[in-house]
C-alpha cells in the first residue's frame, strides 16, 4: 500500500500492478488492485482540486517502486473523466488586467505548468502505462492519457470526445501528435477539429483501443488480463519493449507538449475561450437547476 495519503485519487499497489484510480464513489472495498484512482465524486472526475498534483505524485511513486511492472490509470462510476472542471475553473473567470500581452501569456503558462509536468511524467514513466477506460472520457480526460498510453483497455460503454475547438482551445499537451501517430492524420483531425465522438468499437477499429471488456466486472477483467500477461511474459522484458519503442519518440513528444502549451496560452491571450467557457458554464448551471426542480 502507498504511504502517501491522497484526497482526489486512490493509489493501491498489489504485486506487480500499480493502479491510479479516479472514483465517483468514496468507498472502494471491492477494488484490491494497484490503483491510482481519481476521487472527485461530484465533478465526474474532472481536473480540479488536487487531482493533477496527486496524479503526478502517484506516477512518481510507482515509477520508483521496485516491484511493479504495470501502472494502471482507471476510474469508477459513469465517467473515466469529464476533462476540465468548467464550473470550478479560474482560467476564464478572472477579470485581472495585465500590463501587456506578454505578461498575460506568462501568467497562463504558469497555470499550465502542472499539466506539462503530468505529461512529462507519463512520457518518462518507466513502467508499462495502461489506461483502463471504465466509461466515457471527454476533453483533457480523453486527450492527455489515452494518446500517451502504452496499452489502452476500454469498457463497452466508453466513448471519447475531445471538444477543444468548441471551447476556443487547442489540442492540449501534445495530444494532436499522439492521436495522429495512432489513428492517422485525417481521423485525428476529424476527432480534434470537429469534436467527433468515437465509440469503443471505432477506437478499436482505428488502432487506439487494444481490448474491450463488458461494463459489468470491468475492473476485474482488467486485473485478470494484466495478471495473465505477467504469467506469460517477463516483466523486465515488457518494460524494455516500452523503453526501446519510446526512446526515439521521447524528445519529439516533449516538444509537442511545449508547442501545444504555447498555442493554448496564445488562445487565452486572445481571449477566445472566455466567452465560450462562460456560455458553457451557464448551460451547466441551468441544467443543474432543472434537475434540482424535479426532485
TrEMBL record:
It is found in: Peroxisome. One of its GO terms (biological process) is fatty acid beta-oxidation. One of its GO terms (cellular component) is peroxisomal matrix. It comes from the Eukaryota. CDD domains: crotonase-like. It holds the Pfam family ECH_1. Its main location: other. One of its GO terms (molecular function) is isomerase activity. Pathway: Lipid metabolism; fatty acid beta-oxidation. Keywords: Isomerase, Peroxisome. Belongs to the enoyl-CoA hydratase/isomerase family. This is Enoyl-CoA delta isomerase 2, mitochondrial. The lineage of its organism: Eukaryota, Fungi, Dikarya, Ascomycota, Pezizomycotina.
